[in-house]
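Re: the 467-residue chain
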Amino acid sequence: MSKTRHIHLIAICGVGMSALAGMLQARGFRVTGSDQNVYPPMSTQLAALGIEVRQGFSPAHLADNPDLIIVGNAVSRSNPEVQAMLELGLPFLSFPQALAEFFLQDRHPIVVAGTHGKTTTASLMAWVLAAAGLQPSFMIGGIPRNFGTNYQLGDGPFFVVEGDEYDTAFFDKGPKFLHYRPQSAILTSVEFDHGDIYRDLDHVKDAFRRFVQILPANGFLAADVDYPHVPALLTTAPCLWEGYGRSTMAQWGARDIEWGETTTRFVVLRNGQPVGAVEWELMGWHNVHNALGVIAVASHLGIPFGRIREGLQRFTGVKRRQELRGIVHDIMVIDDFAHHPTAIRETLAALQARYRGRRFWAIFEPRSATSRRSTFQEAFVDAFAGADHVIIAGLYNPDYIPLGERLSPERLASDIAVKHGKDAHYIPDVDAIVAHIATHAQPGEVVVIMSNGGFGGIHEKLLSALQ
């Protein structure tokens, strides 16, 4: 790749692809891209960087013969630019291949993988390294509030990567994280997800087993051993590993947890012995677990606990993860990315521990490839048991899911009402949801909006309606 000058990215407006574009430009390459979904914030981010984005997909976008093309994972073999790329014989890489080729070869990659918590844990890992003065690089699938951007090229030896188990490209159906050359890793959890590419739980476990096995013998792995499918995977690890969580097999744990109205306090344990106390902004057991994974890796890298604690205590979280969007007439509106039953359950439990005595609304949009399927039809019923009021929205783009495989939001709302005695409704339209909440929500209540997408701008619509 030493002669590469012009790099073109097909589907440049994805979160990861736009970050990669910015990093490549910072390295001195001429970068262009194309996409059919060109809208803020990625469009404005790329425009601010001066990166040309060509509208739609067309063979004409390759008329200047780029030296290299990077193909996004959502781009199919039938894409007209891909067809032109193949006909012209232009060199190409997938997004994970390009990240590894251009940015990971001379670094110590710290890869955060798992079904849940990757974004928060990777953000926290990067921030702890930064707070310790180690100037890390990172690429993350969300926006860490401490950095205000999802990527950074630092001068230090460490590169933190959020390791996605989703497939790589139309020409490589393996998980992205197999390309990231981990030297250190955190495995947060293993459960079934991504029903559009994984057949069943065994298929998911096999992907994570392959990830564990690519760690080098001198590498290090921290893993949440509370998840029942994780310990068996660790038996295949070629390197040193340490577990964290509440299990008796965990080397790292926590006790004396105090759930305050603005902070959480806990004592960190290593092999049952106190290491020190932490007080930070984040809430919930799942975030305590995320902290333990980061503490384990940072400690293995030689960072003193006092520096680690300082980073934890200054960490302000990630956008769209339990993010308070506003308070109107003492009604709190919170945005969260939860779209898996486990994530929904843990999010509600965390918020209830933080805001004790308040009543909760849970508003859910089935939007991810798995949440729109009937896979979790029964599991979702119990996931919402902690809420007082539940609204299930209509499926996002339902036609992409075969009729016989779709989640039934009407049935889900009915089952929540019957099984748990909750005020639960199926309301397919965003504006109707907003009107219902604005009419019935009371001062002191908390409205938690859960979706892995924009959900029709519901957050701002609701805050305006509550006024």
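The mean pLDDT is 95.
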